[in-house]
Amino acid sequence: MSFTFRWVPTPGQNNNFVNGSINSGRARAFLDDGKVDPFDSPLYVCIPPITFLGGDAGAANIYDFAKLLATCGPRSTVQNPGIDYRGHTINTGGALTLNDIPFGNYEFNVLPTTVLDQATVATLFSDTNDKSTFIVVKGNLSIGGNTILIPTVNPSYVAPATVTSPDPDAKRRLFMVVYVTGNLTFTNQSSVISMTACGGNSSPTGADIGFDPVPVASNVYYYNGAYSDQISPQIQYLGGSGGGGATGGNGASGLDGTLGGGGGTISTGGGGSGNQVGGSGIVSGAGGNGSAFSGGAGGGSSREVEGATAGSSFGAAGGNGAPAGDDGGTVGGTGNPGGAGSSVAGNPGTGGVLIVICEGTLGTSGRLRANGVDGKDNGVDQGGGASGGGIVVVIQRLSTGNIPTTTVIGGNASPGGPGGAGNSVKYGINS
Asked: Which of 112, 122, 332, 398 would bridge 155 by S-S if both were Cys, CB 3.0 to 4.6 A apart?
């Protein structure tokens, strides 16, 4: 007697194993006469789900990678990389590829139903800048009152004075993904998810990532007063343009990010330029363009002397102020870090990229932020440019659903130029 084994779905489970994916399946035995063996159950070979333990990994897009973590990731946090799981050491992260393109390193958390307070937030992030973070909750997530879910390792984190103030406790991230398989709720307006001041540095001094759009999801519905067809949105590697260098007076504003392709392309805002005072034909530092992971950095100011430089277009340093003139010093632009100035260095921080995915009900009482950071001034007549705003993407069950109050504005500045705003978009898994 001989048997033939064929892959078939496991009863009661959504079996993608047959399609070369990662979920469970089983082998079913057939007699050599082509009939199913009547002693069916003993001949099933069960394939348990594969446990994802980190390391180099990839998926078609950000949403698919988040779903992979929810399906196969063990419950863990990045602060506990040595947890032993069924004889294996959890390896929280590695290199991430999306659609076969490298997008730096990542870290991940897989949590059960959770209520976050500020001290708990600090356990979800490593101290390493310029990687992406995935926070996956298999169940419901609640953001407590006076709690800001932001990349930080400080359990005593305190929110900055304003929504565009520099944040010394913020860590840079290429992007942060919060994926909830159940409901995402907020206690009140003091419950915030934020990537303000957390824009990632993708230059050679940071993650050193090439010029490619970032695939966010496939076959979702964009809604902005009307349905779209199913689209596959991407974050553009080139965002809003930076403000042009000033030849006298205040710096120029960075341009806003551009939302195009019927919601299929998303971008960050540009940085503002520094201001310029005195002299003839002298130009201040221009603002940097937005990138896929950061609003543009601000340019440095100038006074009577040439030498101010532009802010980075990769989320790196702000522009340097020119050497001091006869009447005083100059100020650096906002960036990662702030640019040097002959009297005052620029502020740190740029607007980052936040992606919130909720398979259940999304609450609306909280706040979502990915703002740029203010420019700095010398208290007299010199100021560096502010950084551009980032991106907030919301993917929820229905594209018509409401979302929390969201801001993606650029930083404020005067006499330096303000930053441009990024994009805030919402998509639905179903129309």
From this structure: 122
